[in-house]
Amino acid sequence: MDKLVKMFVEGSKAEALDEEGVWCVCTVVCSESEAISVAFDGWGEEWNRTIDDPREIRELSVIPESSGRRKATNLSRKSPQITKVIRDDKLWMGHHEVLVDI
Length: 102
Hints:
Distance between the termini: 41 Å
Number of helices: 1
Order of helices and strands: HEEEEEEE
Mean pLDDT: 77
């Protein structure tokens, strides 16, 4: 875990699993010897989480869009189960981008 803590310093960008198991862009809030606290970009403090499993955080693999909203892709399922969508989220259906406007 020490190597991981050195890799993700306070203020750095990363991707972490949220409560639904979706990789989301986040900002490292605090990195201690045993855990890393992250804030998910575009989400309130109630969604912040502390990560102690190194499999639940990784280096940023996509450039975050200027809106600060998360971008989730799920290419492993033909019919993904979407549980949380908010205004201005972008979804991909096949090769078509859909903007949520509810």
